[in-house]
User: Fold these one by one.
Assistant:
Number 1:
Amino acid sequence: MKQFLALKASAGSGKTFALTVRYITLLLLRAKPKEILTLTFTNKAANEMSERIYHTLLHLGEDEAYLNEIAKESGISIETILLKKDALIKDYTNATLSIFTIDKFVNMILREFCGYAGVSDDFEIKEDDIESLSAKFLESLDLQSFDKLIDFQIYEKKKYSSLFDIFQNLIEKNEDIETVDVDATLITLQKKAVLDKAYKIKEFILNSPVASNSAKNAVDFDSFENLLKRGNTWLGKEFASEFSYFKKCSNELLEEFFQETKKELAIYYKIRAAYSLGKLFELYRLFKEYKKSFNISKNYLHFSDISNLVYELLSKKIDKEFLYFRLDSKFSHILIDEFQDTSLLQYRILQPLIEELLSSNEFNSFFYVGDTKQSIYRFRGGKRELFDYVSKTNPQIEVEVLNTNYRSSKNIVEFVNNSFINLPSYEYYEQHSIHQDGYVEVLEDNALLEEEKYVNIAKKISQLMQSGVNSNDIAILTYTNDDVLNIYSYLKKMFPTLKISTEMTSRLVNQENIKALINMVKYLYFKEEIYKENVNAILGKEPGSELKIDVDIKQKSVQETLYNIAKVLDIVDENIIRVIELASSYKNIVDFVYEIDKLETPIENQEQYGLQILTIFKSKGLEFHTVLLVDRIKQKNSDKSSLLFEYEGVELKNIYYKISSLENYNEEYKKALEKEKSLNYEDELNILYVALTRAKKNMVVFKKTKSSVFDLLDLKVQTLGEIVKSSNLTINHEKSEKVIYKPLNLGLQDKPMQIEDDEKEYSLYSRYFGIATHYCLEMMNEFNEDSLNKALNLTKSRFSSYLGDSDFLNIRNRVLALLENEKFLSLVSDGEYDKEQALIYKGELKIIDLLVKKDERYYIFDYKTTKEESKEHEIQVSHYKNALKDIINSSNISTYIIYLKEKESFLKEVN
């Protein structure tokens, strides 16, 4: 095994395979699981990685590819590996794993050292309340600072909200720069100096006998602002003679006046840029300090706040040894997935740990894998340049390229090769496919520019299904969430029986049925016709259509009101039910009307399977039998950010405040703009690369006839190969009956979960959920809600690396249900109890979840988080009873299994 290795893994080239092999190889070489820090970028990826390793260990020997590669990497014979299989499984399943998202790892560090950062250990993680934070910041400013902010807004013609966005951006990047305090009067004086020189040009042109009316009109200015407006066509020229209207009357004197004006303008822009940047950062530093105190007072942090605090801790307040001591683990091995998406701040946090591994003589390793061509999150801070920077600045790291594509068919791979390999200044390694055939079609779609944009997409779906492609195997990739919703709505009308799922990050309140519901509530509340017409438009009704809803919104509960309205409008679906569930947090309909638009909860998938519609960004890391790739419908929004960050490699070189025409007078700024333009171009190519590498068998590209994003690749209309049928021939694209919701329940029915036996056996997630639930109950000093809340905070601190917020809410609901169980409370009330009571019986260790002694009788309770009862559970608690019976020499024992469900709990007595 190469100790320090970086893998450039193109799409479909076996990245996850390589990571899994590396991890198991380390286990074979006697590395402990908790010492192998494995970092990914999403919870889904972290869970899949831990499950993949577990599944591979369980089936080691069945897959020759894994076994041979592990033997090769470890230098251990296949026979020896198989002999160690059971021990590896036992070590892995009993260990505390160090497989995290980077965010969770950073969060874990802060929770351990929160006292050093001045924050409470039970802080919440959530999005900033923009309205409250911005308003409170304004209130915190003294009169002098407030005046500075207002002056800056007026001078820069900026709304406060956009200024607030700049502050947030600076905090996320955690970048600062030395600024100069420029007196505003210097700008006024310099404007006058520019005008003095420019008036000489004006006088020269007006007095020239050969000057045209167009030339004279070009110098028709009487103020500095008017000069910039009139001179926007000629001030940017290098010489006066380059401006066509000045050419006839140009001579040395005019050129002299022109160059003097340019020189004074360059000074003006230098002062102006320094002034703007200085004033901005003065205000930003005030905001940064206030935000820190605001977050502490509210006991919540944004992810960017957590990263900033941890970076400060590791760089100034704690050393590595103390870090390892508090985390109860020294990381001897680091594996990082999707390294091209790492931000500079994240890398700076990890850098001390990485450098220690690279410089140590002990048994350790560093491995990272990624693909700069799939770097599409630069807008979130992803820094693809880090991939090469780390390997080049650490020569002991070897770099290998994976160039065999195991995902896509031959025609798709060759199509992608031909599209990218000849692009100038774009790093692309030709890929080879192990598969044959495949289908590629690029078609020009005029409809994408018309009102009925998606008609040809619907026709192609119909054609594919008639050609033997199952609708469950089809994915439509788009550029925006708006496109997803629009295509979804169109296809639901065209194929009413078709199952369609959407992988959305869009907010729940943006879904059509939810919009209709909210507008109907607002109509009933405000009595304004616009809301009624919004409902008509959303539901496809004629303008002016009557909407008869007899609901007293002020007398009924919010949840009942929403349900009744949705039922009359016939829009009840999973998303409506989700909103009804969330509505319990609103005290009354007034709160709902004024607060619902702030709801950040994401949209629910319409179905669990079926034809899928998702954005290219959400498709990253996924693969589909058949892909329909849709052109960018609307032109990309122009970059309206006020700051330009220029990096030299991975080091910040400069921050510029964007000013119109500054590039004509500042060469460094001009180069920075060109560099940013080049990065934006590469971003677009990377998005296309991700999109074109998701298909396994069939790919259809819908290209606009003009202004197409595919023009970047010069894609031509073409067809390669023949459509590959689905291997699953079952007709399963027909929509099943609607889910029926019971009005009184106002939620999804709690049906027994059907889980395959192998899923029960292999799910690490289920294991951690069960352990966390038991731990929460163990940490409760009393069986009441206050004790539950305290225990839950401890549980979050311990298990936040494995479970998400929704899981902890699930645990809370299950324990709350137990606390409402009258039979359980009557049995434990006034009793003496021990939790996690250990018993040694016939040489075996038995652990009783809860042992209660009351009135000379013992009660054994065993917690279960599974949804199904099992005979094995009864056998297990019977063993506990027999053990305790022999130890205390008494039969005065009752045993119960407690089934903890999310909405109820029940006790089953075992005789």
Number 2:
Amino acid sequence: MLPVIRPMRDYAVDIWTTREGLPHNSLRKIVQTPDGLIWLATWEGLVRYNGQEFTTFDRGSTPGLLDNAVGSLHVDRQGSLWISDSRGNLSRYDTRGHWQHFPRELPAPGVLVQAMASDAQGRLWLQHEGKGLGHLDPGGRFNFTPPPDDLSVLLTYPGLVVDSIGQVWMGSMDGILLRDGQGVLQRAPASFGLPRAPSWPYLAPDGVLWLVVGNSLYRMRDGKPVLHYSLDAQTFLTSMLIDSKGLIWLGTESDGLMRLGPGGLERMPEGKKLPGGRILSLFEDNEGSIWVGANGGLFRLREALFTSYGISDGLSGDYVRSVLEDSQRRIWIGSAQGLDRMDADGSIHSIDLARGNENVVSVLSLAEGRDGTIWVGTFADGVIGIGRDGRLTRFDQVQQLSSGNVRALVVDANNWLWVGTQGGLLRIRDGKVERPEIHGLPKQELVTALGQHEGQLWVGSTEGVRIVHPDRVERVELSQLGGARTVLGLQSIGKAMWISTDRGLYRYQDGKLGHVGLEQGLPVDAVFQLVPDRLGNVWLSSNRGVLRTDMVSLNEVADGRRSQLDGVERYAEIDGMSNSQANGSSGPGSMLDHRGRYWVVTAGGLSVVDPQHLRQLRERPSPRPMLEQVRVNGQLQDWRNSRVEVPGGARVSISYVGLSYLISDRIRYRTRLVGLDEEWIERGRQRSVEYISLPPGRYTLQVSSMHPGGRWSLQVAELHFTVAPLWWQSPWVWFGAVLALLLLWAGLYRYGVYRYKARSQRLARLVDQRTYDLQLQAESLLAANQEKTRLLDRLREQSEAFQRQARQDALTGLPNRRVFDEALAREFSRHQRSGHPLCLVVLDIDHFKTVNDRFSHSVGDRVLTEVGKLLQQACRDGDLPARLGGEEFALLLDDTTAVEAEQLCSRLQALFHARQDWGGVQGLSVTFSAGLVQAQADDKQATDLYRRADHALYSAKSSGRDVTCVE
């Protein structure tokens, strides 16, 4: 079976730099030892990576290196790791975990060893920078022969290979060097016809020798180089890799990463292009990931589960709200920046919906009519129909009847278009917009979802769900089961209608309602859309990524046959999604296309996954478990070569890891302590166990690991240890202790009887005395209680006054800064959960200091008071005006877009301009400057929104004041 070759755009790119724990950002060499560990050569030490964390070995570590600047790495035929440094020293780490150092000895030069290679005789060949070729023999002796006088090696280039017949090939900046059978280092034969350019050799996994010369690749065939490919670029190749699929990966000096395959040369797309600079090394690990060592850090390319599309791929915007596949198998993509169409060949075309110089049309919902018309629901432009001929039909009356915000569309059997809007449910029939006169339909509610089930129309809104029958409207009460209120999606599957809400999933079937929510094991509260695929999977979109489970489990929980939903997998950016925040309250927010692929809209683009690929990933080998550290009472132990002896009563701590680099943070573990318990104990993602005061005996700890949804590894990591008995655990000590306890018990019993009689007599006397004292105290407490009541009344009055002062600005009567900060944090969290728009306006009275200086501070205070009253009058009930301090005010506008907020600011400025007697001073004019922002996906917390608003205010002031700057 031929391997599946996915385009480079489908690879997810992971990046590590010094911020993630690397000691240096320049990676000269990457290798993997037989135990599965990844090793990196840097200028600041040797780095080991286990998929979870980096461990650095340098001169200050234990064990330590002879020098921090690592030149190269090499894994020999026995699996040992060799490390070279900038002073000509070598170190070896063998398969048993032992370290051995080889300090440089003459005649070897004390310079950087750029590359290493081993031959069949056990010799380790060394490329000395600017000096030539040497080797370390199996006995540990350095050998070096200077190159001939007529051969300059001052400009060697890292690259050393021993071919199948024992010849040693070496790179340099002006051509390939070769050590022939007589041991003489010379230039490659002139008959090769190779140009003078930076050159180096590469030995492919199949044993074929390649020569890289400048920007060209040559393959050795019958002892001569044959040109394979030349790059059309003004750069030269710096690294090469032929992966397990036969694809050629190429790193360059200044032109990034490329791949040469059956389709020709392929480059990384713009959105995933690696930083500029030299690519020093390329490596494929045993799971098929491609590792890239560059001057700017460590990069890994792995075949991700999801593929994502965004602005860099041709979409009009990254904030995608709806996706639809039409009957012609074209994908329609609606976003906050417009509408796009992806044709069958993958090309993306923007659809112009705007009128002339009109602003961009924000698309919220999509549907296809039975005649092939594509219906587009917008945020503020009503409904637009796109005919098969491309002509647009606009229904502006939708905007007039409902204030726009068309979040849901559905076409019924009569080809009538039902329109869910901010102002209830509308219908377009025979080219006319109408509001159906059916009692019980939502009229002043935000309709968020529409669906059809068994010939009936289902309407979801912020107030629940309704079923439209021919003669009546039935309300399905969700709140009684789980407390749901807002319906976010509707999906008809067989005889059931699945309802996605802000409190999980509901199933309506045969008149009965079932619930699958947080309490039943769903890892999130709000679910946007449920989509089943053809393999039994069910995909759920949410604010916290895409969830995957199976339909059988969902039905069992909804039926009550099962209490918990187990094994739900969550996918996010690490799985290739452009953004883990999916979008809801618009639709369709996700879908299954004709090929069985699942599409989902997100705040960072459009993502798609082929469930067949999921099956392939789940069939990958289980991660190999490996012990990392063993500590006894905090002290490191050498566990590799002998059984660990543990003193009685000691604390034994063992850490372990599953060696996989594909989503390694999701690996699950289980342990079994043979000798104490024969059952496996699942540890989840926990990577360590600890045992305290184990009974004496011989134990074996076994560790197994697996990928989520995979199988437990058959290979286990084992630790053998023995716990010695404590002195008091011997049989004679136990016998003596039992006898002493019996004698002590008898003596204590006799003494206790004597003490009991004496205590009874003393207590009788105390009872009489205490009874008299308590009577006196009761009278005193009654008087004190009356005084306390009066004092509490006065304190309550003072407390209420203090609370008002703490939350209200004393001058203007507006909420103060404290109340504003609480409201901003609360409304920002609500925005993140629901996706409702949120705007913030920060305004400042222009030249207010001049008012104080010219007319006195009492006039200035009256001006501020009048500003506060004007803001209260101009705002809606749900808006929050506040005084932040001095002449600075703020308006927190919930469920308000930037356009609506800007209109409010314009009205405020008109009110300010209309008044000419501010502070009671005739002819005194007052203006303000304002900064306006709308919450975006990039805002991670409320302070980000305030910081952008403050920056916009500064821009307004810099623009001459008396303006509103929108950012």
Number 3:
Amino acid sequence: MEQHPYPHMLAPLDLGFTTLKNRVLMGSMHTGLEEANDGFKKLAAFYAERAKGDVGLIVTGGFSPNFRGRLTPFSAQFSSGRAARAHRAITEAVHAHGGKIALQLLHAGRYAFHPFAQSASAIRAPISKFTPFEMSERAIWRTIKAFGRSAALAREAGYDGVEIMGSEGYLINQFFCHRANRRYDQWGGTVENRMRFAVEVMRAVRQAAGDDFIVIFRLSMLDLVEQGNTFEDVVALAKGLEQAGVTIINTGIGWHEARVPTIATQVPRGAFSWVTEKLKGEVSVPLVTCNRINTPEVAESILASGQADMVSMARPFLADAEFVAKAKAGQPDDINTCIACNQACLDHVFKGKRASCLVNPKACYETELIATPVRQVKQVAVIGGGMAGISCATEAAERGHDVTLFEKSDRLGGQFNLAMAIPGKEEFKETIRYYLRRLEKAGVTVKLNQTVDVDTLSAFDDVVVATGVKPRRPAIEGIEHPKVIDYQTFIRDNPALGSHVAIIGAGGIGVDVATMITEPKDQSLDDWLKEWGIDKTISHEGGLYPGHDTHSDKQVWVLQRREGRVGKGPGKTTGWIHRKTLQKRGVNLVGGVTYHKIDDEGLHVSIKDEAHLIPATQIILCAGQESVNQLAEQLKQANLSYHLIGGAEHAGELDAKRAIRQGIETALAL
């Protein structure tokens, strides 16, 4: 009998009335296609790719069971026969590849961004503009009935199950927590009353959908907010859900308003599997664990140790639709690993844009970014081995072109080689590994330590210039002082630093450098949990106790010219994490700075028109970048055809998302 490389992850899961082919659940993600014109056709292609990739069970993005539960006035709703018929395109596409799929039912409650929001109590969420209406008894029962009706329609649409969204601070979670529920009737107060809404929804769904239908409940096991639940409360609800007929309980970690990172790249891999493990033995239904599980090795380790019965991975299936199939084939090196950057997935969704993936721009663009074999093979030169150049060279070679990649340094990866040296960004090395593997398999000729001239390039049919960026040196008196170092040199060489460090520039690079300087040595998972005030016993409400600040032994200043908030770095959903991390480490975040001069005493500045001397022993320049594109100018003068991509085309904030996507789009157009 064949021995799988990941026996626990690839073992089937018998649910009684049906069997899942393996222990991997593709977690729910809103993509923005749910509301788009022709979105269901694109969603069908998106989910079909993941079903083809052998995932055990897919869960869709959230659909509201009624109008008031929508996240925005135009968000997706699933409550009619017409909706059920439209969704058949999705279920049929998944079933055509032997997959199973469940529809997530999500009522936003007080997270709804519209004036019709409703919740257990009329308490506005800190992340919302709207105060919800307190639900009447009649409204509660009408909502419970709506969940049941949507479940029956999901079955009619061909879904294999539904997931009831009871975590992340949405309506059901709101009823369950004192934080959002101040009621004194049968729906509030005691744990029995607060959990009643969740249990009644579960009963209604089971009754409407029948016994042979998968019903998952996403249970908030660790709220990470004040006035959240204790572990005793969680156990009580889990047992109530089991009695009401739940098939699988999925883990939810943290509310959206929680000020603790849960899925960003700074979070250690598998950081919350211990939460799910605590519930093992309390109920007999299968338990799913989640968050920062992004390799088959991590998944296998969690399942082999008995911490959970299944693992949920969401964004790893944006990064690679074939994650499970590649693991099953014993080819983990071929997996495009999710680096948890959030830049093209969550950041896009929160801006109302279509989700995709920084390391895989084809995610959610399956019907648009299509690679076709070339009709005429070209000799293609790609200049620059950063992420733009690598992605272009790979895609072009896989289409059939003869590609040579030139890189002036001794390694490929460009700015990602710097990024992976930053604490909390170690995942970036996985992207380099993945693309180098593809380069090798595609047969790209790689020439390191080599600069090229126009004469050499005239022999090629097409030239792609991806020469990247160099640090910008601002015009400050004394900028050539020996204590001044640019960020590239600092990250690459990691020189010893004195006691006082000034960082000029508070963008993403400045934040990364400050993080690198102040990172505690040899931080374990328990140290990380302690730093963020997470109570592993979950005996404190919400699983929180006062965080433990880890002040650095160095005085660090992060400086920016413009006034306002300093130290966020890029990223809508991760910026606050960077800022809070630096504050916890005692970093001085200073805006409204005018730079005067650098000398032996340090950095002379004005802050809001008041003169200051920062006694810096080192000054690190993180003041942006400039394009390196002299070669493009030479090609232009020689009247040779070329394409300019990545940092060479536009320096801006270091934007790997744009660089990789541009590389692929250029390759598809060659």
Number 4:
Amino acid sequence: MKQSSFLLPTLRDVPADADIASHQLMLRAGMIKQLAAGVYSYLPLAKRVIHKVENIVHEEMSKAGSQQLTMPTLHPAELWQETGRWDKMGGELMRLKDRHNRSFALGPTHEEVITSIIRDFIQSYKQLPLNVYQIQTKFRDERRPRFGLLRGREFIMKDAYSFHSNEESLHEAYEKMYEAYSKTFTRVGLTFRPVIADSGAMGGKDTHEFMALAEVGEDTIAYSDSSDYAANIEMAAVQVKAPNDLPTHREELNKVETKDVKTIEDVSELLNVPASSIIKSLLTNVDGDWVLVLIRGDHELNEIKLKHQLNAKEIRLATNEEVLEVVKTPVGSIGPIGTSLKVVADHAIQYIVNGVCGANEEHKHYTGVHAERDIDVENYGDIRFIKEGEPSPDGKGKIRFAQGIEVGQVFKLGTFYSENMGATVLDENGKSKPIMMGCYGIGVSRTVAAIIEQHHDEKGITWPYEVAPFHIHLLALNMKNQEQADLGEHLYSLLSEKGYEVLFDDRKERAGVKFNDADLVGIPIRIAIGKKASEGIVELKIRHSGESVEVSVSDLVDYLAAKVQELKSE
């Protein structure tokens, strides 16, 4: 492709509304153009990268036994109402009505649609297992679109779905897709970790997220410094272990004045006790019922864990007004002693001795609290966030934190969709049973942004070879010089014939402009034709390393072949 006729509108300045590297560089490198908040056009350079990523996905999905199809983007509301997700998805679901006032949604995912197809065509266990996928534009009405392609309202996603007659078959497909994802993200050049995750609105239980490590990641990964253990911080388990330094002396329960105390820090300072000895009481609405949830003062409630612990559909913390109405005392003074509410506590609470908690009277707290003696706890569980430096849940090493960008996720959905939508098969005994399902998604456009987050420097993008928009950026530094122009045309034809994808900068621009654009766009290999064109010598530079060498045109093809093998093996 000749750059003089290629739509590549590079920018010198960083756009003011772009906060992260991938967003800035995709705008500056002429890859994307914003149409509305969270909605972008993919310009030719971006499309070439997207096609490279999609081709890798196609190859790995085919190896995993998945078949490609395409489903509608426009979904009738009735399908989503069958599973209850029409209401559960809330404002993130892009909704619209047709001229007949019929409700539709623009699909953010396709569980309902694919289940409706399978229930109409699959009747026997003999037709299973089955695995299908598509790559398609999805829609999500983000409240606050940001970070370019990382959190948009319109995005490209690969979604796959598997169908099974038993748990063993589902597990086998899950493992195959897990392996396919690992290969996919390795091939596109990402440093990533598969982490234990929560399935959220997708339903199901077992799930892993594939997280590309990046400082701008919106998710926190908890990982072991001595093993392969990694989990989304919402799902990282906490080891339950009694402290070695429990006091042997048990104080008497005593009610004390705590006027003008509002926070854990205030209580700690006033009563001269560590936050770890304070019991924090949180009034929580669990599927419409009020529950008092207890965690240590130095810990933070993990609502995802609490939801799983109580097998709840919805939980939320009470407002200040609701606390006054239910407990008859302000937030800072509520406590578990003598309450008529159901009490649920984190495991750490049972080891509190000589602690402090609210007394359910304004400006009053109890001291000398011994949890197992003074509090009627109905249910203990792991309901807090793990902290950095704590033991890893697998018993190997300590927990460390890192930020990550979710680029893919695999789910064991079980029978949630098939039961709600009547997708059944006859088993070996002729008995009707719901089909077991798996779901597997890759954010294609997010993956492109994540690649840039990991592969850039102060000058621009540094593409991995396999996903680069072109393999070689060929620069004729002075197109007015006939020898440079002729050699440029010759090498453009020669390298293209050898199978390389070449972007030939044949523009009548200054050399400095061409070098700056080449660094910004980040094609792996740059070949510059300059003053030594008459001698048959060009300069070859590797973008990510900065390695530069002069090469004779007669040796160029062989030298390139060796360099390309090095780049592919990195």
